[in-house]
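Course assignment 3, question 2. Fill in each field.
Student: A.L.
Task: Predict the tertiary structure for the chain below.
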Amino acid sequence: MLRHSPVLLTGAALLFLAGVLQTADVQAQEIIVKHIGFQLEESIESVTVELNNDYVPDFFPIEGDKPRIVFDFKPVSFWDGPTRIKVGGKYIQRIRIHLHSDTATLRVVLDLNPAEDFYATPTFFKSKNACFMKMSIQKNQ
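Answer field:
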């Protein structure tokens, strides 16, 4: 069984990126992060980030004793939301958020439970007035 597999995370991201391409114009627009939240739906834990327009953040897993998934949203010049969200889930323990004003990057870090085997799936979808990035984590099958 794979523990915190970056291959599963990266594979899902590549599948998504193959279907949706961002233009340089979209990437150059300032990103407004409206809300970051945690949801527990049956045995699936999700973090949702509500944005002002279409955007796929840079993201990468960090394995080891303190596994994490890191997302970088840029350019972002403002964040007045929380800097920590303690969720206490089975897989996601807390969410840390920090605005790096020197690089106009809002970094969102999901601190994960090192004792659990899981896989992570990013999804991106758009509604009428917002775009959402959702990271779902569930038991590794």
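Instructor remarks: The chain is about 15% helix and 45% strand. The longest strand covers residues 33-41.
Grade: pending
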